[in-house]
Specification:
This is DUF1366 domain-containing protein. This protein is α+β, with helices and mostly antiparallel strands and about 150 residues long. Helix content is about 65%, strand content about 20%. The chain has a domain at about 5-55. It has helices spanning about 50-65, 65-150; strands spanning about 5-15, 20-30, 35-40. The longest helix has about 80 residues, at about 65-150. It starts with a strand and ends with a helix.
């Protein structure tokens, strides 16, 4: 990989006299000689040499490889759209599962309510049966005591 150094950083002023861009010129220090100037947004004059080199290289890459970047962007957009579709399918499946679960919970609630009603009825029947048995026992015990006292 080539090594680069900054050979110039020139402010570009807007109509109000403020620095809107900085033209950064870099030159290679290794390999064959290459130099180019790239325009970066904002006042970049206070940045370090390494930061300026990176800004210039990034600007160069963006300007020279815009078509490649667009193709990569289209691929990424296609991937994102696919992920969105898969997410929508998953959401739909989860919604269906949630509705199924809600229906099952409603059935369980109904079954519990019927069970509680039946339990209450059985409880009342047991009370009545117990009362009847107790009355019979008391009635029979009274007859036995009466017979024993008569003799």
């Amino acid at each position: 990989m080539r090594a680069w150094n900054v050979v110039g950083k020139y402010p570009v002023y807007d109509d109000e006299g403020k620095v809107s861009h900085t033209d950064i010129t870099i030159a290679s220090t290794t390999g064959s000689y290459a130099t180019y100037t790239e325009r970066t947004i904002g006042d970049q004059r206070d940045k370090s040499e390494q930061e300026l080199v990176e800004l210039a290289r990034e600007a160069h890459f963006k300007s020279e490889y815009a078509e490649r970047a667009m193709a990569e962007s289209v691929v990424k957009i296609d991937e994102i759209e696919l992920n969105i579709k898969e997410g929508q399918k998953l959401r739909q499946a989860m919604q269906e599962q949630l509705e199924f679960t809600a229906a099952k919970l409603a059935q369980i609630d109904d079954a519990i309510e019927r069970s509680e009603t039946q339990f209450t009825k059985v409880e009342e029947l047991i009370k009545v049966t117990t009362g009847t048995i107790n009355e019979l026992i008391v009635g029979m015990m009274g007859d036995v005591e009466d017979e024993e006292t008569i003799e």
